[in-house]
Amino acid sequence: MSPYQNIKIKCPKCGQVGNMSVLPSLNTALNPELKEKVISKEAFEYTCPGCLTKNHLNYTFLYHDPSRKLMIQFVAGDDKAWVKAVNEFRQMPYSTRDPLRANKYCVRAVRSQNQLTEKIQIFDAGLDDRVIEILKLVMLANSFKGRLLKKPDHAFFYKDTDGSNNIIFFKKEESMGALKVTPEQIAAVEKDYAAALQDTMPGELQVIDSLWAAAAIKQCRKAD
Ligand SMILES: [Zn+2]
Questions:
Q1: pLDDT tens digits, 129-155
Q2: Ligand 1 mean position, distance from CA 109 (Å)
Q3: Are strands 5-10 and 17-22 parallel, antiparallel or unpaired?
Q4: What is the Cα–Cα distance from 59 to 217, expressed in whole angstroms?
């Protein structure tokens, strides 16, 4: 069965109504061929047949990789939509949640397509997104100290074409450079922040972002 749904869409530029195939969810076991389109975000693009403008669409999307026991819910919309979606997920009937718990699923919710594609790449690299979020903050605090005029305000993990794991730093939308992630750095975070990395809620939806990482770092420093 095709995971696509057809909708009518009006081009914001020329107003022509066209048909778009939207992908509300992807199960990578059923449609592995669509995964790259999600990572490149091509799956969320619509080209107007009238003026050929490429429109990028933001809509709520569920990513499910059964082989990695991974589920990522991307929630489009404002704060209200976010809170509602997270609550709905957490209040799902037990019959739906039990398999996730029993299989110790990793369940995440994210607020942007960038975070979605970042998480997919982190898990595909066999890494723990909690370790990467902590590492990003550690790198932001240490590696750039005094070396840059402008301090980056956020960072994303990405896998380079040469297969290396990297974290790229941004100030607003401007790239400030990338640093390679080494196995030694991963091991150091796993050791230093072990207390924050115990999974006490397998199968439950967790929001793992920079706020989570800041709280985890604080918790571990306090315990020292
Ligand atoms: Zn158009």
A1: 999 999 999 988 876 666 655 778 889
A2: 32
A3: antiparallel
A4: 32
For 54-108, write each residue's pLDDT tens digit: 999 999 999 999 999 999 999 999 999 999 999 998 888 888 888 888 999 999 9
**Ligand 1 center to 211 CA (angstroms):** 39
Residues 6+ apart with CB under 8 A from 126: none
Output the CA–CA distances (angstroms, integers) from residue 85 to 43, 59, 69, 81, 92, in the order listed. 22, 13, 21, 6, 11
Q: Tell me how far the alpha carbon of residue 10 lies from the centroid of ligand 1, in angstroms.
A: 8
**What are the residues facing 45 on neighbouring strands?**
56
Q: Using an 8 Å Cβ cutoff, are 90 and 55 in contact?
A: no
Give me the amino acid identity at 41: K
Residues, CB-to-ion distance under 5 Å, ligand 1: 11, 13-14, 16, 48, 50-51, 53
As a whole number of angstroms, the distance between CA 73 and CA 108 comes to 6
Q: Give the helix ranges, DSSP H, for the chain.
A: 35-39, 79-90, 94-102, 113-124, 129-142, 183-192, 210-223
CA separation, residue 60 to residues 28, 54, 73 (Å): 17, 19, 8
Distance 52 CA to ligand 1 centre (A): 6
CB 89 within 8 A of CB 95: no
CA of 2 to the centre of ligand 1 (A): 26
Q: How far apart, in whole angstroms, are the C-alpha atoms of residue 158 and residue 40?
A: 12
